[in-house]
Automatic annotation (TrEMBL):
Cofactor: NADP(+)
Organism: Longilinea arvoryzae
Molecular function GO terms recorded: GDP-mannose 4,6-dehydratase activity; NADP+ binding
Protein's name according to its UniProt entry: GDP-mannose 4,6-dehydratase
Biological process per Gene Ontology, one example term: 'de novo' GDP-L-fucose biosynthetic process
The protein's enzyme class: lyase
Key words, A-Z: Lyase, NADP
Chemical reaction(s) catalysed: GDP-alpha-D-mannose = GDP-4-dehydro-alpha-D-rhamnose + H2O
Domain NAD(P)-binding: 5-317
Gene3D superfamilies membership: NAD(P)-binding Rossmann-like Domain, UDP-galactose 4-epimerase, domain 1
Function per UniProt: Catalyzes the conversion of GDP-D-mannose to GDP-4-dehydro-6-deoxy-D-mannose.
UniProt KW NADP keyword: yes
EC number: 4.2.1.47
NCBIfam families: gmd
Length: 356
């Protein structure tokens, strides 16, 4: 049984990746930070108490922090995983302007701490670095593996650092280290302050009568949006290659925040102009206007191509948030998941928890 370690396992990508690896027969280990409150709701449905009788345990959680090298070395040395998926980060771009030093420490230096732990432990571990399309920043679209980086936020700059140290350890120490440069990927498990989920949650609250106004920033920013569960499949495929390399992962389509509003509110028959107001606090000091992936290499070498299109993604997210507030959804998103992925529950633990 292969062992994999996931940092950031309680996040959107970490939870989907844990599900995927468990379905492939892995023993999965997750790194979580010790806190006074539990933050494991995205993985509660796949975690079994090791003290429970009759339940085989293939998912283990370990306390640790990417901000401290000693805890990482202990966990990695003791587990000795064949694969490490480094997803943990301070990943909110707007917040990185408010907490630049913390973002640099966790999102940037956290990566080299893990790489050093692998090197010092003398492991033949395959390492996946979650790089970001934000690294391209102001670069002209479409962006691919050869596009020069032009980071326009502390978050993006920290990710550029992580990208290059991942390559440095591959070339200097001959470790199997790969970058997945993922463009925006969303789902019903997306963090509630990210713009896509902020929109779908607000729409559900408006229909439920608990919210009247949605405050947003730049509506003209364009992003390449895909469906997160498909993107973790790409992560896994990157580490199954014969040689380490770097890959751009995206749909090859770009849409504005305004278009996301059109799709979401139009899906339930509302005009978003009646509910949305612009708040300058949500604008970034330096904006990234247009990100668009050229995923040619990942399609050719990984044989990976997303199947969920933009309007389908929006419907999946709206349906999930409507159900979370007890409202009947139009059901197109649920139908897409049932027909294409074999069911709704596999892809949304929040709905699972609500329906127990």
């Amino acid at each position: 049984m292969k062992k994999a370690l996931i940092t950031g396992i309680t996040g959107q990508d970490g939870s989907y990746l844990a599900e995927l690896l468990l379905s492939k027969g892995y023993e999965v280990h997750g790194l979580i930070r010790r806190a006074s409150t539990f933050n494991t709701r995205r993985i509660d449905h796949i975690y079994h108490d090791p003290h429970a009788n009759g339940e085989p345990v293939h998912l283990y959680l370990h306390y640790g922090d990417v901000a401290t090298a000693d805890s990482l070395l202990d966990v990695i040395y003791n587990i000795r995983p064949e694969e490490i998926y480094h997803l943990a980060a301070q990943s909110h771009v707007r917040v990185s302007f408010d907490m630049p030093e913390y973002t640099g420490d966790v999102t940037g230096l956290g990566t080299i701490r893990i790489l050093e732990a692998i090197r010092k432990a003398k492991l033949e571990t395959r390492f996946y670095q979650a790089s970001s399309s934000e690294m391209f920043g102001g670069a002209k679209p479409p962006q691919n593996e050869d596009t020069p980086f032009e980071p326009r936020s502390p978050y993006a700059a920290a990710k550029v650092y992580s990208y290059w140290v991942t390559r440095n350890y591959r070339e200097g120490y001959h470790l199997f280290t790969s970058n997945g440069i993922l463009f925006n990927h969303e789902s019903p498990r997306r963090g509630e302050t990210f713009v896509t989920r902020k929109i779908t949650r607000a729409l559900a609250a408006i229909l439920a009568g608990t919210q009247k106004t949605l405050y947003l920033g730049n509506l003209d920013s364009r992003r390449d949006w895909g469906y997160a569960p498909e993107y973790v499949e790409a992560m896994w495929r990157i580490l199954q290659q014969d040689t380490a390399d770097d890959y751009v992962i995206g749909t090859g389509e770009s849409h504005s925040v305004r278009e996301f509003l059109d799709e979401a509110f139009g899906y339930v028959g509302l005009d978003w102009n009646q509910y949305v107001k612009i708040d300058p606090r949500y604008f970034r000091p330096t904006e990234v206007n247009y990100l668009l992936a050229d995923p040619s290499r990942s399609q050719q070498k990984l044989n990976w191509k997303p199947s969920v299109h933009f309007h389908e993604l929006v419907r999946i997210m709206v349906d999930a948030d409507l159900e979370l507030v007890g409202r009947k959804s139009p059901g197109e998103g649920r139908k897409i998941l049932e027909e294409r992925f074999g069911g709704w529950h596999r892809w949304d633990s929040q709905v699972v928890s609500m329906e127990r």
